[in-house]
């Protein structure tokens, strides 16, 4: 996937995995990204994110809390 291909506007084909243990931050960020047109999955823990990936969940972009 070319970064230039998606540089102009959000694309629902770009799959984002958002990982954050702060519920409010997660909810607001996920809703904002959905409103922008992205396909997004949220996980509250690193373990939950790994479970998602191990189960075959594919992602193009991972956004995570550094202190997680």
Structure description:
With 68 residues, the chain is of the alpha/beta class. Helices cover 32% and strands 21% of the residues. It contains two helices and three strands; from the N terminus they run βαβαβ. It has helices at residues 23-35, 46-54; strands at 15-19, 39-43, 61-64. A three-stranded parallel β-sheet has the order 2-1-3. Strand 1 (15-19), helix 1 (23-35) and strand 2 (39-43) form a beta-alpha-beta unit. The radius of gyration is 12 Å and the shape is globular. It starts with 14 loop residues before the first strand and ends with a strand. The model has no long low-confidence stretch (mean pLDDT 86).
What order do the helices and strands come in, and which of them pair?
Elements: E1 15-19, H1 23-35, E2 39-43, H2 46-54, E3 61-64
Parallel strand pairs: 1-2, 1-3
Produce a short descriptive summary.
The chain contains two helices and three strands.
Tell me the strand order in the biggest sheet: 2-1-3
How helix-rich are the residues, as a percent range?
25-40%
Look at the helices and sheets and give the structural class. Answer: alpha/beta
Give me the number of helical elements. Answer: 2
How does the overall form come out from the CA principal axes? globular
Gyration radius, to the nearest Å? Answer: 12 Å
Rounded average pLDDT:
86
DSSP strand tally:
3
- Major pleated sheet: 3 strands, parallel
